[in-house]
Amino acid sequence: MTTQRIDPHEVPGRPCSLAASLHVIGDRWALVAIREVMLGNHRFRQIARNTGAPTDRLSARLKGLITADVMERRPLPDDPRHDGYYLTEAGRDLAGVIRELLRWGDRWIVSSPPMRLRHHEHELVSRTVCETCQQTVDPHEVYPEMTADGWDVAGPVNEPTQRR
Question: Can you tell me the distance from the alpha carbon of 19 to that of 12, in angstroms, rounded to the nearest whole number?
Fold first, then answer.
């Protein structure tokens, strides 16, 4: 299944993949549903219980994630009479985003981390490595290059400057 792509110019404000992505996954119930499926919970009732989402909203979010090709429904291995929710390749590709949001929340939001991610026999501590040059990425060395026509990093270039 191929998902309908979003033209970044159709998103209000700056053309940006982040803004377009948030149209699909930028909802609290969507992200925690994705988390639950990543944790191995595929049944609707498990996802509802573990997210605390109202079932009508959760149902709508799951349908939206299926439409966006982030999730799919398929028979449960232990009960083929019922379907479960599973991540597609696009959904599995959100693992790094989920890990970083967990790390950020542990550092800045919660009083103590309620869950830890493990790698072999130790806590996971990840770093970003540039696939092209294999160097560890220093955030101070990353900069934006605008490729959208009519925009630079300060905003639209064709918009007249307003006087104050």
Answer: 8
Counting beta carbons within 10 angstroms of the beta carbon of residue 51, is it exposed (0 to 12), middle (13 to 18) or buried (19 or more)? buried
Give the domain range for residue 27: 8-111
**Distance (Å) of CA 92 to CA 4, 14, 78:** 18, 27, 22
Per-residue pLDDT tens digits for 28-77: 999 999 999 999 999 999 999 999 999 999 999 999 999 999 999 999 99
* Neighbour count for residue 91 (Cβ, 10 Å): 21
Tell me the pLDDT of the chain averaged across its residues. Answer: 92
Residue 58 burial by Cβ neighbours in a 10 Å radius (0-12, 13-18, 19+): buried
CATH number of the structural domain spanning residue 105:
1.10.10.10
Read off the tokens for 106: 């542990």
Task: Taking the CA atoms of 19, 105, 100 and 90 in sequence, report the sign of the dihedral they define.
Answer: negative
**In-domain check, residue 89:** yes
Residue 150 lies in a domain: no
Element (H, E) at 48: helix 44-51
Residue 4 confidence class, pLDDT cut points 50, 70, 90: confident
